[in-house]
Write a structure and sequence with these properties.
This protein has about 130 residues and is of the alpha+beta class. It folds into two domains: about 80 residues, Translation Initiation Factor IF3; about 45 residues. The chain is built from four helices and four strands, in the order E-H-E-H-E-H-H-E. Strand 1, helix 1 and strand 2 form a beta-alpha-beta unit. Helix 3 runs antiparallel to helix 4. It is elongated. About 15% of the residues are buried.
């Protein structure tokens, strides 16, 4: 499973290398609609995934409202944890604030033109 660690282009070779033929891997990354210049489009991602004979079993694309709800809940937990860590380790306070700011910006992006897309894929080839 690769959860937004790398983009689709870098994740696919890693996932395929560690998945047996006929096995399943899960890829979670942000995609945009075709024609929107905000990142990798869903159709481009689909082409990359299917280029080696892999078959997409399921695609789940989060709606903007669901993204906002999920990200708000996640951000609240991150902020609470960051406050505790900053209290325990004051030297980390500025770095934690920068981290939270980055998370906030990413959350805004993921409820707009970029949307979380989860691909469940069966690796091609012989069993």
């Amino acid at each position: 499973m690769m959860l937004g660690l790398f983009g689709v282009e870098k994740s696919l070779p890693l996932l395929r290398r560690h998945t047996c033929a006929g096995g399943v891997y899960v890829l979670d990354d942000a995609t945009c609609e075709d024609g929107v210049d905000a990142g990798l489009s869903r159709s481009d991602a689909r082409e990359l995934i299917e280029a080696n004979g892999d078959r997409i079993v399921e695609v789940v694309r989060q709606t903007p409202s669901a993204a906002r709800r999920q990200n708000a809940a996640l951000y609240a937990r991150l902020r609470q944890r960051a406050r505790r860590l900053a209290h325990e380790r004051p030297a980390l306070a500025k770095e934690l604030a920068r981290f939270l700011d980055g998370q906030r910006r990413a959350n805004v992006m993921l409820s707009g033109e970029l949307r979380s897309t989860v691909w469940v894929v069966r690796k091609g080839g012989k069993w």
